[in-house]
Structure formats: structure tokens, C-alpha cells
């Protein structure tokens, strides 16, 4: 890759292009302009902050649509499905009845399915469709899936992802190795190779058997 490329302009322009494309394809061009940002936000693939930005030289406001680059180690389709997930929030704020902060209600869920994303608290079939924390999965053959194919055919491509996508997850997993006392069954969580003593048995140098890491 040419290091003289204007990386910021290229990457943000890609997301702006995608926003405009899906606005036309899935929302009939009815969504307002937003300010797209890349934000590392714990446990979130993205979020919408209504009217988070205000004008400096004129009396106006716009929504912030943020995407978390720590989760860009996925396919372009998966990343852009998060973009559209947040665009549905933009639609509800603009044309619907916004629920309380961070809540995904039935109106939002219905619009998600209309544009080709199935709401799910687990990100897989069978999860809850409404609630405080709701992800989604792409509906095979749905409007989003079809629109993404058309966007991809234009040569669209996202080029950058956070290095932390892999390293931070590995560190997190390493800090959550489960250990179980073979005598009393007491559990503890620590880094691999930690020297632990059971607080229930009170035996010195007790051998704690490491179990499968829980993430």
C-alpha cells in the first residue's frame, strides 16, 4: 500500500460512501447527514449519539454514528451491517418514536428486519429481539445482503482495522483462565501459570487444576 495515501480521508470517505449508498438503497434517502466517527467503546460494535455535535458557526446539530475499530477484524459485510444497525437507530430518531436511551424496542426491531437484519441479543438465531443489548445477524437473501453485493461489485473495500482486535482479546482471555480445587471444587480465575492456594481448604501449596478459559 502506498504510504503517502491520505489514510484518514480514504477510510472515512469509505464509510460516508457506504452510509449514502445504504441510505438510498434501504431507507429511500430519508436519513439525515450524520458525523461518522471511529470510537473504541467497551463491548460495543457501534453506537448512535443523537445530536452529539453542534455547529460552531451556525445554530445546528447532528447525530454521531460511531463504529468501533476494535471489531473490524470481520468481513466488510459484517462491519457494514453494524453501520446499517446504527442507521436504523438514526431512522427511529428521525422518523419514529425513540425509546429510552440504549433500548432496542419493537419498532426498531421491525425496521431492522425490514432492511434485512434480524435483531438478536446473541447475534445468532434464537436470541431476544428487543432489550438493552441487542446485536443482529444478516438475513440471507434480505435487502441488506442484496445491497451489499451491489456495493461490493463497485470495488468497495475497507482497508484498515485496529491491531487491538486480536491482541486485546487474547490478553482478556489469558486473564480469565478458570482454576478448580480438586479437593473441594472451589473455583478461581487468574492468568495461566498462576500459583494459587485454596481459601476454603487452607492447605499450603495446594495444586489447583486449570480448567478451560472462559471469555
Please give the radius of gyration in angstroms.
22 Å
Structural class: alpha+beta
Compute the number of structural domains. Answer: 2
Low-pLDDT segments, ≥5 res: 205-215
H and E order: HEEEHHEEHHEEE
Outline type = elongated
Helix content: 25-40%
Number of helices, counting only DSSP H or I runs of 4 residues or more: 5
Strand content: 15-25%
Distance separating the two termini: 35 Å
Assembly category: single chain
Strand runs, count: 8
Task: Walk me through this protein's architecture.
By secondary structure, the chain is α+β, with helices and mostly antiparallel strands. It folds into 2 domains: 7-165, no CATH class; 175-210, no CATH class. It is built from 5 helices and 8 strands. The strands form 3 sheets. It has a 3-stranded mixed β-sheet. Strands 7-6-8 form a 3-stranded antiparallel β-sheet, with no helix packed on it. Strands 4-5 form a two-stranded antiparallel sheet. Helix 1 crosses helix 2 (76-95). It is elongated, with a radius of gyration of 22 Å.
What is the fold's blueprint, element by element?
Elements: H1 7-27, E1 35-38, E2 46-54, E3 61-67, H2 76-95, H3 106-115, E4 117-120, E5 135-138, H4 143-152, H5 164-174, E6 177-180, E7 187-190, E8 209-210
Parallel strand pairs: 1-3
Antiparallel strand pairs: 2-3, 4-5, 6-7, 6-8
Helix pairs in contact: 1-2, 1-4, 2-3
Amino acid at each position: 500500500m502506498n504510504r503517502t495515501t491520505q489514510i484518514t480521508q480514504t477510510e472515512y470517505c469509505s464509510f460516508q460512501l457506504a452510509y449514502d449508498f445504504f441510505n438510498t438503497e434501504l431507507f429511500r434517502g430519508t436519513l439525515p447527514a450524520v458525523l461518522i466517527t471511529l470510537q473504541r467503546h467497551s463491548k460495543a460494535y457501534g453506537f448512535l449519539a443523537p445530536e452529539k455535535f453542534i455547529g460552531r458557526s451556525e445554530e445546528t446539530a447532528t447525530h454521531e454514528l460511531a463504529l468501533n475499530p476494535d471489531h473490524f477484524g470481520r468481513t466488510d459485510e459484517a462491519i457494514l451491517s453494524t453501520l446499517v444497525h446504527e442507521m436504523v437507530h438514526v431512522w427511529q430518531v428521525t422518523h419514529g418514536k425513540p425509546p429510552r436511551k440504549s433500548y432496542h424496542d419493537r419498532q426498531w426491531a421491525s425496521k431492522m428486519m425490514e432492511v434485512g437484519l434480524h435483531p438478536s441479543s446473541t447475534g445468532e438465531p434464537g436470541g431476544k429481539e428487543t432489550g438493552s443489548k441487542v446485536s443482529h445477524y444478516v438475513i440471507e437473501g434480505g435487502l441488506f445482503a442484496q445491497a451489499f453485493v451491489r456495493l461490493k461489485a463497485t470495488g468497495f473495500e475497507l482497508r484498515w482495522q485496529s491491531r487491538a482486535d486480536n491482541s486485546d482479546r487474547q490478553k482478556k482471555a489469558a486473564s480469565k483462565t478458570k482454576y478448580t480445587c480438586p479437593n473441594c471444587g472451589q473455583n478461581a480465575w487468574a492468568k495461566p501459570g498462576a500459583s494459587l492456594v485454596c481459601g476454603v481448604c487452607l492447605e499450603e501449596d495446594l495444586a489447583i487444576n486449570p480448567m478451560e478459559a472462559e471469555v
